[in-house]
Amino acid sequence: MGYPDTFTGFCVDGPKSWNKFRKAELTPKPFGDHDIDVQIDACSLCSSDLHTVTGGWGEYVGPLCVGHEVVGKAVSVGKHVKNLKVGDRVGVGAQVWSCLECDLCKDRNENYCPRMVDTYNAQYEDGSWAHGGFASHMRAHEYFTFKIPDELETNAAAPLLCAGITTYSPLVRAGVGPGKRVGVVGIGGLGHLGLQWAAALGAETYAITHSPAKADDCRKLGAKDVIVTSQKGWNEPWKAKFDFVLNCADATHEFDMAAYLSIVKPTGDFHMVGIPDKPLPEMSVGIFAGGAPKLTGSHLGNHQEMDALLKLAVDKNVRPWVEVMPISEKACGDAFELQKANKFRYRCTLAQFDKAFGRN
Predict the structure, then answer these.
(1) pTM of the model
(2) What Pfam families does this protein map onto (predicted)?
(3) Does residue 240 belong to any structural domain of this protein?
């Protein structure tokens, strides 16, 4: 049929063929008065996509089109849309709908709405399905669609829509700024942005990594210094020194949690933003009673934080480091293989959607 009745996406059929993509026809939700259709120009690859297609977060039935760091052009807007118009360059992240009526939504916590709809592999209340950004188009509610500032290049703007807000929101909600000492654990797709946000907000920022080879990158990204966790007793000089630690690492099941929590000041946060496949190591109450650290976590951020993030990215020159690949069936599979092997430095954006979907 084709747009606007159907979209075309690069899809996988199930966890056993997670790296085998094919084009498939996708049926979007019925177009609503507050909806925006985005003709996609770029979509970045997120570890969440990898966790999903490999079945790490559970089984699914294909064809599944992932991708939730989307930048493109608004090509249709609902009659009640107020702040965006056809032709605007816009972005969509990992959420496309919430009720906007419950107490959480009214308290600017729509990213925790019990009725929220994720960008893909999620079902609307009418039974229709949301489809991701490895596609010709995307349909999203206006509240979860953001105008991209002219100063942000498309391929670099895309990762801000998920990796950006995931690392920015907990920092600002914790009051990170001048006079605060912040550690960022795991310098990858999330962590390299976490370092930049913390530094841009004015905090004394440290990179915490098991890879000494990343030290130069960490300093370029805003770290005052680099703490290498592969060194024995790495935490000893840093006990109770950090107001906030942002954990972006995926291998937390291998962590000595007592060591990591020891570097947090009493009542300070060791805050999780990655969602690994495997559970955390077993911990005793004594770890918490001894130094009073808090183990916390968060999911995305709210609309106002996304607006502020985009402004800060422009004002303080915060940019994801991206490798760009033209989207295709083979490129999608190759990109996921590279993501699984942690080969990107530090984010991958799939581009050239015009060519892939035969647009002029």
Answers:
(1) 0.96
(2) ADH_N, ADH_zinc_N
(3) yes
